[in-house]
Design goal:
The complex is a heterodimer.
Chain A (H helix, E strand, L loop, with lengths): L8 H9 L5 H12 L7 E4 L1 H12 L10 E6 L26 H8 L2 E7 L33 H8 L5 E6 L5 H7 L2 E4 L19 E6 L2 H9 L30 E5 L9 H16 L3 E5 L7 H16 L17 H12 L2 H14 L5 H21 L5 E5 L15 H5 L6 H6 L3 E9 L2 E8 L5 H15 L10
Parallel strand pairs in A: 2-3, 2-4, 7-8, 7-9
Antiparallel strand pairs in A: 1-3, 4-6, 5-6, 5-10, 9-11, 10-11
Chain B lengths: L5 E12 L38 H13 L3 E2 L6 E4 L9 E4 L6 E10 L2 E14 L3 E5 L10 E5 L6 E7 L6 H17 L12 E11 L9 E6 L2 H20 L8 E5 L4 E4 L12 E2 L10 H9 L5 H10 L4 H7 L3 H11 L4 H19 L10 H12 L5 H15 L3 H8 L8 H13 L1 H8 L5 H13 L5 H12 L2
Parallel strand pairs in B: 11-12
Antiparallel strand pairs in B: 1-9, 1-10, 2-5, 3-4, 3-14, 5-6, 6-9, 7-8, 10-11, 12-13
Classes of the chains: A alpha/beta, B alpha+beta.
Amino acid sequence: MMDATQLTAEGAIKALAAGETSSAELVDTYLARCEDDRWGSFLALDAERARARANEIDAMDEKPPLRGVPIAIKDVLSTEGLTTTCASKILEGFTPVYTATCVERLERAGAIVLGKTNMDEFAMGSSTENSAYQVTRNPWDLERVPGGSSGGSAAAVAACQAPWSLGTDTGGSIRQPAALCGIVGMKPTYGAVSRYGLVAFASSLDQVGPFARSVRDAAHLLSFMVGKDPKDSTSVDWPDPIVLPTAERLDGMRVGIVTELMGEGIDPGVRAAVERSMALVEELGGTVVPISLPSSAHGIATYYLIAPAECSANLARFDGVRYGPRHEADTLLDQYELTRGELFGPEVKRRIILGTFALASGYYDAYYRRAQQVRTLIVRDFATAFENVDLIASPTSPTVAFKLGERTADPMSMYLADICTVPVSLAGLPSISIPCGLSDGLPVGLQLVGPAFSENRLFAASHALEQAIGFNPTPPGLS
Amino acid sequence: MSDAKYEAVIGIEIHVQLATRTKMFCGCELSFGDPPNTHTCPVCLAHPGALPVTNAEAIRLGIMAGLALGCDIAPESTFHRKNYFYPDLPKAYQISQFDEPLCIGGSFTYLQEEGPQVVGITRVHLEEDAAKLQHLSASGRRAGAEQSAVDFNRGGTPLAEIVTEPDIRTAQQAADFLKQLRGTLREIGISDCNMEEGSMRADANVSIRPVGSTELGTKTELKNMNSFTFLRRGVEAEIARQIAIVEAGDRVVQETLHFDPVTEQLHPLRSKEESHDYRYFPEPDLVPVAPDPAWVAELRDAMPEGPVARRVRYEAMGLTFEDAEVLTESRELSDYFEATAAQADAKQAANWIRGDLRALLSERGEEPWQGHVTPTRLAQLITLVDSGALSRANAREVVLPAILESDKDPQAIVDEQGLGAIGDGDELRSIVQTAIDDNPKQAEQLRGGQDKLLGFFVGQVMKATGGRADAKAVNELIRELLGS
């Protein structure tokens, strides 16, 4: 029999529909692989419920569309009855009483949750090294990071522990780990997927999105999640259904390549892979034009004011009063300080302090307000660019996967890992990272960005390019 | 104010709990007095990942408040996060409105004996209430408590905060303003404004300045006064305290005070409310409130006449200041009065309602609009008396109680009981003559100028007629027949 774990989700669904395998069999195969500790992808498995659900679906006459295909979920998404820790000690052992809307929608469509994946604590980081619990290793090189913050979800798919998974992206936390792990990662338009049940880091930037081994799988998974949720005021009615891409050509497509993101600071190997992709765009009938996003140079600075400001309020609820561990003390203030001081990790504390400062009376105008103004300029940069091009291309990450521990001592170098992805997040635009080749034997990600709600265009173009690139997402030694 | 050298400058902030079915940002039902923590959900307990969704009915009620206060309704208003740590605030921020409130710039006219007074309304904005803390100590106070418990039932209750301009000058005005404002808010149905249950709370900002000055002095804030009397007494005490400070050559310090109604003392509050940088910023989980202008116009057109406007109209109908005040205490009483006045003399109707009818009903614990004395019957009764067909005494003592008991029209009772007044006919004249003839000595004395004997003869006639005679007519007849 074929190795089920090498399948795409699409392949698995076909196999299920043809009666070649059962959901129970798939779940068992993947669970066995999830128990393999080499990569440190999972923080918790939900084996018992996954098996029960698989049996339930196998016994159904009318099967839901996803037919019991398993999925891995980032531990920042609330799952009823299954621990949700955000990889933080402050939520150690916390079991939610409700399930995030996006997960609920996928479960209703017949997806089966295998477990919860590792991440940077509260999604703050670019290497998953800020997890309070464990290290996650890149399946392409166990000495290297999988990227972050959704490193566990990316590694799980790259290591074939799940055919697909959910991550969240605030400044690049889906796209960057997808690039570093050689898989597809997609951040939808802000508002596309309900944030209800996504433990907030930066509310105006957070979005849920798919990791997959193919563009079609990413599109398929997203198609079940989009649409207005009455529980999230910022979610929107979805204009057109997401369709599974079939395009093989890019005729008439104008792709803008961002000149600022193809020069200094970008590894030559990364640049070369992206340039090869641009050559493919033209071979497929598209046009490549250089474009400029002048304000995006301020993306990182802007992001590191807005996101921490929002997080300083979002994380204030973790006070040990209602849930989670509490460090008892004689006074209320001591209890707050002990609980939060002991249980938040250093990067989370750094951002809370940064954000508190940016919002403080007397500094608000200089920092938070100014950052919002620059954000508006970045939005305009993209709008101007999209007057002339259909999609915007750049590397996803300036480098391939870096070594574990290489950047932990220098937060600034870690922040720069998101230099290509952050401006897109600030503009709220849909964006995908697809693997476009190797550099020194490690995957390189190509980022494509479209105007708001252009998901179908983005998937179509990515699919055509994906076919032309022909990247094998299974790391050497795993096939 | 006791000292004419100074005048007070007072502004009021009023929190009213909106009469919605559910909380401001989640679907939990509002409750008062239910067991603790029985009306909670992931949203109002601030569980990880939960998001607020604005209650549309709260927006509607907030807009109604703004319209009743003559405010502009902002085409777009936003919510902000007000950040501070306290166990009664589960998110550690309160969702409130900051620099873009729902309603801006109105005014409220309230009535005083000396004439109408206008108070500027700075703004009306929406926010959520905090939860309730219970300190488990003998005194119920935080100091010395072994433990503190939180009841989240109240957490997330929708509040409208109404902020006035500093246009009020005396403690009595502050109380009168608040009372009449409450009448208006109740009238439009946005809140039950029950101060004891805390669904209406008032803070007063108080400063003093020399009479004639236009500068503002240093203000203090009196928090959470939960009755009109406490508001008046608290503000009075604070004005006196500030005058004493200034007279002693000291300066008033800006602070937040609590008025203890038992001791009449003002204590500075050292609480979460002070020395805080709230780090307001726009709430990214909510979209701006942008009400459809056509809908707002509909709400505006449907605004009922407020009690203050009714009072003005009643005074124009010939009622006294006090009549109008009493009759507008509730919408039901107002409606009752108006229905009566539509069929009988308005002033008479006011007198009957405020006097005999209420006196009679209060013994039974009923309100005028509840019993058998319908506006039509009361109007009929007034007309019978006015026309001289029924004596006032019989109307008050016999007919009115009989309507209440028997659910019959006044005329039917008059007929049944033979109470038709013996008014100006020959019958009454002969009865009066008989009374004079039977009491020649008293008649002589009355003729001689002893006017107090007039009552004696009226009494005799009433006795003889079973009270059916009209006292005024009897008076006139006695004088005529005695030639005095």
